[in-house]
Amino acid sequence: MDAEHRGWMLSNDGGLGGPLGYRDASDYQAQRLLTPGELAEQCGPLRPVVPPTEADVAELRRAWTVAGRKAAYTTAVAVQIAFGRLREGNGGLAAPHSYEVTRRQLAAGRPGSWEAVRLFELQLWANKNKESRYDAAAAATIATVLQRWVSSPDRYTEVAETLTGLFATFADEQGGWPAVADQWLQQGALDHEGVLLTYSLLYSTGAEFDPAMLS
User: Fold this and answer.
1) Rounded CA Rg of the chain
2) pLDDT tens track of the chain, all 215 residues?
3) Distance (Å, whole) CA 72 – CA 86
4) How far apart are CA 196 and CA 128, in angstroms?
5) Residue among 98, 97, 104, 87 at smallest CA distance from 24
6) Is the bond into 48 cis (omega within 30 degrees of 0)?
7) What does the alpha-carbon distance between residue 185 and residue 214 come to, in Å, rounded to a whole number?
8) Is 205 exposed, middle or buried (0-12, 13-18, 19+ CB in 10 A)?
9) Which of these, 58, 110, 112, 127, is most buried using a 10 Å CB contact count?
10) 176: left (phi > 0), else alpha (psi -120 to 50), else beta?
């Protein structure tokens, strides 16, 4: 991860046997291929992309436990809160490129993945004014963890896919999707968009994932 929140993937130039170098993962068609030294000099300081710490995972699980059946909506609001905080840190509304920089910062671990796309759709859909549907303290805690994943000076943790895996595992341990999502996020609910966004992202790796929920 470089200083401008761009992820770089190890690649080769010219197919098998070509020289290895790093290519911008957000623009994989670009011709620029940098050696490790060139990457550090031109784009540093660099941060390794690593899994979340055990402490962060435990903090998320405690927040989800507190939220109970509000956990899914609480997580959606948390992503929105994290995005807003990060955007303020990137200059806020006064900075013309703050939205794009923040978007890149949250998705740099796997830019262009369907999980990253869905993550942004989720935070646009969430509504912090629906206070009865989420646990405010838990949402603030989750948002802080997500911020830490992408803002730490010496490490970066991919957000969308990591969050998906952790939430789905937690949900299965609680008894599945009905145990972590309120009645408005269950099959047949009127808010079809909400069901689609939350279920498809947060429970896509769940043991009882049912594609019929998305139809």
Assistant:
1) 18
2) 898 888 888 877 655 556 678 888 766 566 677 888 988 999 899 999 999 999 999 999 999 999 999 999 999 999 999 999 999 999 999 998 999 999 989 988 776 789 999 999 999 999 999 999 999 999 999 999 999 999 999 999 999 999 999 999 999 999 999 999 999 999 999 999 999 999 999 999 999 999 999 98
3) 21
4) 19
5) 104
6) no
7) 11
8) middle
9) 110
10) left
If we measure between CA atoms, which residue out of 150, 144, 147 comes closest to residue 105?
150
Note if the pTM is more than 0.85. Answer: yes
DSSP assignment of 132-189, as one string? GGS-HHHHHHHHHHHHHHHH-TT-B---HHHHHHHHHHHHHHHTSGGGTS-GGGSTT-
Handedness of CA 205, 208, 212, 215 (dihedral sign): negative
Q: Which residues contact 18 (CB under 8 A, 6 or more apart)?
A: 12
The DSSP-derived string for 62-81 is: HHHHHHGGGHHHHHHHHHHH
Using CA atoms, how far apart are residues 163 and 184, in angstroms rounded to an integer? Answer: 21
Q: Which two tokens stand for residue 184?
A: 């408005």
SS3 89: helix
Fill in the amino acid letter for 108: A
Query: What one-character DSSP code corresponds to residue 49?
Result: B
Alpha carbon of residue 178 to chain centroid = 22
